[in-house]
Predict the 3D structure of the following.
Amino acid sequence: MRFLALIVLINFYTAVYAGWLPPENPSPRKILDEAREDARAGRYEDALLKHLWFHNNALKYDRAFYGVRLSFALSDWQELGHKYPEAMHSLEATRDMAGANVRSSVNYYDSFNDYKSINEKLGEEEKTIQLFRWLDKNRQDRAKKVYRLAQSSLVRAKEYELCSKYIDPENSYLRYVRYFRSGLEFSKQSPFQAKAESFAYTSFSNDVATLVALLARGGRKAEAEEVAEMAMLEWDDANFSSALSEAIEGKVPTPWP
């Protein structure tokens, strides 16, 4: 699988690379912007080459593009694929290569994140679940490491039993609290304070309620109640309390956002 995916990308580069070459000192932001402009102007081959370059090289120049690379950039690439089939083929090949890397333990954490993110864009989350099942069967140490990336896909598929094997309530809860507090702090300085604050509260509520529900579903109700009690001390809110009560009874909220 990995070899075939690589051949697809090599063949594409060989066929059209003459259309565009990265500059000597490339700017990931500029190249991504150019890819969007090329797509709007119908220069699809150049647009695809720039998306491929950005996906494969942006983090070498600036790690701050980690989130953009797996969100807005993938959305643009997918949109290009609706107009230019070769772009969709290359996106799928890139996804397949990431999956092969996970199986062969090549940069497996980031590769799993690539695989999962592309599958979400393509509406093929079942592939993510299948790969996580493979890790669960063959490399449980790696499954434990990537579980937090896979959780939303597993929850949407109601794979609660599989989730219960890998949830780490202490570390997960501490991470959610850290994100919550930093989100509220950020909102105070944001020009969109209300939206930023709402995001922090909603994210915390969904994350903690999911953790509590998965613990309850996995027969770990005492741990579920302990997490819920700590969370209420962190944020005393009636709606949040109600969500946690439902979670203790095993009602798993829909992943958000």
